[in-house]
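Progress narrative, work stream C.
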Amino acid sequence: MSSASIDFGLLWPALAAGLLVTATHAPLGMQVLARGIVFIDLAVAQIAGLGVVLADWLGYAPHGAAVQAAAFGAALGGAVVLGWTERRWPEVQEAVIGVSFVVAANAAILLLAANPGGAEHLKDLLVGQILWVDLATLKWVALAYAAVLGAWFGLGGRLGRFGFYVLFACAVTVSVQLVGLYLVFATLIVPALATRNFRRGRLAASYVLGALGYAGGLALSLLRDLPTGPVIVCTMTALGVLLFTLGARAPARPS
C-alpha cells in the first residue's frame, strides 16, 4: 500500500468527524456568541470530560455505555446549573462559567493523579485523537448529531433557555470525546466570530470555514508530521481572521 493511500485512509474518517462537528457546532456557536456566554462550551466540555474521567476512575470500560452516561449526565447537570445561574445572576455569568471550568479541570487532574496513564488521558481530553476515529464511532456520532440538528432547526426559538442548554450538553458530550476540548471550542466560536458581520449566508460561510479549517489542518499535520488538533485549531483561526477581515471590508448592503 502506498504512503498516499495510507494518508488518505487516515484523513477521510478524521475529516468526516470534523465535518460532523462543524455541522452542529456552527449554529450552536452563533447562539453562544449572541448570548454572550462564549466560554460556556469550555466549561460544559470540561464537565463532560470530568464525567469520563470519573467513570474511568470507577473502573468502567473506556467508551462503554457507562462512560457515555457519565459524560452526558455530567454535561447535562453542568448545563442545567449554568442555565439557572444565567437566569439568577446574569451579570456574573461569565465569572461563574470560568469558575466552573477551573473546578472541573482541577477535579479531573486530581482523579487522574494516581493513574499511570493520567497525563496521556488528560491530553486526549484536551487535544483529542481525531486521527484515530473509526467508522463505527462515526455512525453513532452521525445519528446523535442528526437528532441535535433536527431539534435545533425544527424547534428553533421554542426550545427556550433550558432546551438550548440540553441540546448544547448533548452536542458537547459527543464532541469532546471525538475531537477534544480545544477543537470543540474552536469549532463553536471561530466560525461564529469570523462571520458576525455577515448579513446573508452566515451559516453557509461558517460551514465552509469549518470544513476548510479541518481539511487544511489535517492535510498540513500529515504533510509536516505535526500534532493534528493544534494544527487544525491554528488553521481554522487563521482562515477565520481572513474571513472576518474580508467581511469587515465588504460594503454594507442597503436595507
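Work stream C, second folded protein:
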Amino acid sequence: MRAFLPYSEAWLYDVVTAPVPYEPRVVAVTRENEEQFPFERLLLIPDEARRGSLAWFHGGLNRRFGRPASPANTWKRPLRRLPGTQALFHAHFGPVGYRVVDAGLAPAITSFYGYDASEQRTLARWGTAYRRLFRKGAAFVAEGPAMRERLIALGAPPSRTHVVPLIAHLSEDWEPASLADGEPPRVLMAGRLVEKKGFAEGIAAFAEARLACGDAQLLIMGSGPEEEQLRRVARSHGLRDEVEFVPPRPRERFRDFMRSCHVLLQPSRTASDGDAEGGAPTTLLEAQALGRVIVATDHADIPNVVDREAALLAPEGDADALADRLTKALTASSEWPSRGAAGRSFVEAHHSRSRVATLLGALYEQVAPSTID
C-alpha cells in the first residue's frame, strides 16, 4: 500500500492483521499513526519520482500532453529488491496493484476500494495500466457485488474477481441507542469531506428533519476539501449551534462519538467526477456493530452491507426521501432498540473477523496453493 496508515483507511489494519494462515508483511512508502496501528514487519520503500528523475520527467509529459501508454512505475526497482521470499502479494488500491505486476511480482491480488475504480481522472490516467493489471493479476477483490460488477465492466476477468467483505469491529461493549428525558437526538455524519459522501445533502435533510423533532443536533466528523463549503451550507439552512464540525479521531475516539449519537446519516452519492464509494463506507459497519440506527442512500454496495431492519434507505439523489427517512428515524425512538439489535446481528453474521479471515485465507490458498501445508 502507499501509506500505512491514515485514519481514513483504518479498515486496512483489520485486513493486514486478519488471522489467515500466512505471516503478513507490509510494504509501504510512508508510515502514519504508528501508535494507533502498530506493526513490526513493515518495510518502507522509496517512491523514486524525485525531481529530475525519469519518472518525474515522464509525469510532466503526462500532465502536459495527456497520458502516456502507462504511468511511470516509480516503485519498480524498490519492489524488485524486496528481501526474503514472498508467497503472494496483496496490493491495496488499483494503482498499487499495477505497480506490483509491472515489477514482475506474482502471484498478485489487488483490492479496489472506490476512487480507483470510478473517478474519471484516475481511470483516464490508469486505464492502459489497468488493462495490463487485469491480464497479469492473479485475482481482484471487491467489497461487495456492486463493486465487483464495476470491476468487471472495467475489464477484470469475472472468474478472477471476488467479493470479500470488510471486517466490522465487534467489541462487546455495545447497546442500542436510547434517549434520556430531555436529551436531544444526535445525528452523526463521518468520513472524508468530499463530494461523494453527500454531506451537503445530509445537512439539508437534517435541517428538514429538525422541523419535525425540534432540538436535534448534527455532528460532522472528518476533514477534506469541502469543509468550508459544508459550513456555508449549514449556515444557509439557518444551522449554527445545531451543527458541530469535529476533526478526524483515532478509532476508539471515533467509536466514543458514535456511542454518543443515536443515528448515523450516510447520504453517499456519485460525485461529478465519477468518484463513488468503494462498495460502502466502513462507518456503516461501525454503526451496526454499536447498535446504532442508520439512514443512508442506496448508493453502490450500501444495500448489501446494512440490515434492512437496522437501516432506512433513500434513493440516491432523492433529497425529499432522505429527509423523510431521517425524520422517521429521529421521531421513532421506540424503534431504536430493535433496529440496533438487527444491525448488530447482521454484522456478526456477515462481517466478523473470523468469517472474513476464512474468505480471505481461501482466496490466498486458491492463488498460491503450494504455500499451505
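The chain has a mean pLDDT of 92. No further action is required on this item.
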